[in-house]
Sequence to fold (940 residues):
Amino acid sequence: MDRSQQPLPTDGAGGVQPPGSAARRGRLTRSGLRGREAELEALQALIASVARTGSGGLALIQGEPGIGKTTLLAEAVSRARAAGFSVGVGKADELHHIVPLSSLAASVLHGDQPLLSGDAFADLARNHDQRIWLVERLAEAIEARAGSMPVLIGLDDVQWADPLSRFALKQLPTRLRTSPVLWLLTARRDPAGPAEEVVAAAAGNLPTVTVPVGPLSGAAIDQLVGDTLGAAADEQVRDLLEGAGGNPFLAVEMLAGLRTAEASDELVTPGVVPPGLVVGVRGRLRSLDPDTLRFLQMGAVLGRSFGFHDAAALCGRPAATLIPALEEAVRAGLLDDDGDHLVFRHDLLRQAVYVDIPPSARKALHREAARHLVSVGHQPIDAVPHILRGALPGDEECVALLQRAADDILSVTPGLAADLMTRALELVPPALPLRFTVGERTILSLTRAGRNREALSTGDRLLAGRPPLEAFSRIQAALGGALWNMDLAGDLRRRTETALAMGGAAPEIGARLAALHTLALSRDHDLVAAREAGETALRAATEVGDREAHILALSGLGEIAQNAGENAGALERFAALSAIDSAFLPEEIVARLHMDDFESGERLLSQAAEQAGWMRQAMMLWAQGQYDLGLGRLDDADAGFMTMERLEDEVQTPVQQVNGRVIRSRIALLRGDREAAREHLVAARERLAAKPNPGNTAAVRFLEAVHAEADGDIGRAVDRIRQVQREGRFMRWRLLRDWVDSAIRIALRGAEHELAEDLAAQAEAHAERNAAVPTATGIAAQALGLVKNDLAMLEHSAELLKAGPRPLVRAATHADLGQALLAAGRKRQAAAALTQARDTFAESGAHAEAARVQRALEGAGAGSRRAVTKQRPVQGWEALTASEKKVARLVAEGHTNRSAADLLVVSPHTVNTHLTSVFQKLSINSRVQLANVVMALPDS
Fold:
């Protein structure tokens, strides 16, 4: 091989490997690294820090194409491997940035010791909130490996990462910050790009370093020339390389062109590019055989990485006849062959080949590539990148492929599925009936992705096209989910009534419309009529045998019963609903808690913990939080609602965030943490602005009343209670079911006796509807006792609540009873009631309430001045809650989040929340440090 034919693989962030070195066998050597000492020092320091501290870290290597990011990553990976790291490295591809998890796949699913096998993903299909579940599975696998050795996860070209990989990268570094896991990413500079999003998500949670890679210095370029040409750079070569701007890849390509020119005896004029040399690679391509160039062009269409047979198929040639072309491309240093795939040695090489294909030819080739990939057994999603580049309006085959691909990925990347369906709809001409069918599925995908406004506008555009009656009904039914999510119950009612009145719907669509109409009526004041409509809709769904209509009808009837305060009726509907679809188990659990059936609630929560991948995990955490709150476990409830909000944020479905913040603010007030309580109130108001439905509005107004009372502004507190009253009776009772006593006390303090009587009457009516629920009957008696200042009724309330499971409700009643007994001069009995209230509040962590009752005891001289259980400190081991201490001990023993969660029968997400708090309170940042802290404890 003469000098002009030798490949010049780049090595290091700013260099090449000398001809004849191991480079031609694909190995990297350190000798070619030029001018990147500072960058390597920063990366080496982070590698050493992760290994030394046992905590996580993240580095982003940024720079323009060809500047040496990949080589810096490779060198860092080599050093980490030598330091004992388990290494997984992947690369995102510009053309294949759609396939879910394709970017991270090589990092976690392949290699000598894969972190997770492909079989582990087999049970992902058709699950709810799969992204959350998948990220947790990945975290568990990485965490388990990190328990025995530090781990490095590398991803090159993050700017092209697929949506699911980007989602995972925004969660995993923070999730695994307490384990020795180092994330090394490379990306082009883009202030609003995916790489910056990943860094922003990790910042503040673990050490993050951005390593900018700029142009090489003149001295480094001189060294690079010496490595390449075997001689020092003369003035002519320096002038030539000024056009590279310090970019090592472009410099190497120029030097390759220079060698080609020398080999062909071309004259080289100082400062002038030789005739055979074009900056980049075009000069090298001209020397290739036409068959080789065509083969490279077909490969460039397929992507940076492609199959030999696929490229041969696009060439229209038998694979055997293209072996010489393959050999020449590899020999010229344009392609690498790893035995499975051919890979362009650099993205710039592929792009240089690709841009020389005429645009019309590119489009046709992409279309042909899509057809070929599907014909040889690839999944539709693999063909999508080519469809997006090559499909023309009216191409029904491409529309069908886009629909199939969207169906395949809807559960893990609903946003991408919605994008694909939107594109499919764009490809269907307005005159084709197919447009309405594709439009219906587009609406459903947009709704699943949480893009409700887009779904609504898409549906209205389709309806403006005057579809046939059957299509009109389908589109209106498809819009039901978006309208409900947007709290547009009135609009949903009008649309369903119109569609039902027009007729022409298929039986199953008619049943769905009737069920959606029931759901809309559940927000109406005439709940009797709503229930009748719901029963009719349920019968229709059963007769037709349509599962979706059945689910919608049961949901509507459950909402109606809940809004009417009929707990048994709500339980009946939600239990039937979860029997059809286990995703609705959270609704059944909460309904059982409203019946005071905490035993069944616990059983179902345990069942859900064992099958966490099957459930709507954020909603399951809502149910868990309600369970813990009911049992007076304030710390656990607070952690559960915090975790729920985080998961809802991750999947961008804020369902219960207003209510969660309202409850957390009340918990903070019970604890005596006024600052945290105010922060939660502000957050609740912010979330109310985004979702201002009547229920959320009532919840925030009630919280404002509680805060106003705590601040001594009784007038404002009473005004807010009146606003709650105006939201409608069912909204009041969804809110005041367990808190009506607080509202009555506010009314009485404000001398609003009529308001207090109205609230007590509502409590009594609620108890009549739920005579078998001790909490309902006990609170009604308490309310009446407060309003009438009736000691006997308060005693009756305390007796009724003995059969109930809610300690905080019992404590509040005993506090009221104690005050009444004091007023009646019965100090001994008052002391007993108040002491019981104080102790129960203290055991639950409601220190402010315990202190209030203690003051009542002391003020009346009815009890000793014993100290109320003191509040926890802010820092140190004693600052930890009981659950946090359990988690800390288990993790210190070597448990992963998953194994600790299994032992505690909670979600791994909840364990993560507890662990985050543990690390903050102990001022540590690794599991190794936690183990040392626990081992130093006296009882260890």
About this structure: Residues 1-32, 121-128, 263-280 have pLDDT under 50 and may be disordered.
